[in-house]
Every structure is written in C-alpha cells, then in structure tokens.
Design goal:
Blueprint (H helix, E strand, L loop, with lengths): L1 E8 L4 E3 L10 E5 L7 E5 L2 E2 L7 E4 L7 E4 L8 E6 L7 E9 L4
Parallel strand pairs: 1-9
Antiparallel strand pairs: 2-7, 3-4, 3-8, 4-5, 6-7, 8-9
Length: about 100
Amino acid sequence: MVSKSVTATVGDRVTLPCRTTLPTPVDWYYHRSKNERGDVICSAGNFVNGYSGRFVIDRSVQGEFSLIIQSVRREDEGVYICMEDAGLGTEHHVTLHVQNSKH
C-alpha cells in the first residue's frame, strides 16, 4: 500500500496521484471518514454515482491514472483509494485535506 496526503483550497484544481506498472485502468473509491462505507468513483475507467464532470482521470503518461478534481469543495475532503487490477495489485491511499479559501 502507498499512502500520501494532499492539501487543497476550496475552488482549486487538485491531482490525487496514482501511478501503476499495469496498463489496465484502475478503480477509484472515496471515503468521507474511516467509519463510512466508500463510494465507487470510477471503475475500469468509467465514472459512476454522479462523479463525472468535476472528476477526470489523467492518462497523459502510460501507467498514470491520477484523479483530478476540479473546483474542489469542502465535502471532497476524505480518503481516496486507487486500486490496481481489481484489488489484486497495489492500493494507493490519498488523503485529501480541504482548506477554506482565503477570501
């Protein structure tokens, strides 16, 4: 398992990193808190549960499946999990912290 922490400000565009050695698309999950069951954001490259729009997968480099969130909101804060190979490969956990804007 790989763990990272990212901080963003409300309204920012943020990239949650996920690089793999496998060419197959990953699955992304979102957990608001440790005790909450997670939502599927993206499965095999397809967005689900209303996550399309502000959420994009960066595929600019082979093995790159980073999740980009545009116009970050406070409610986006939580733990995002990128799973390789339907959970058989490495899990990448990215904790997103969201700060209020400075305005």
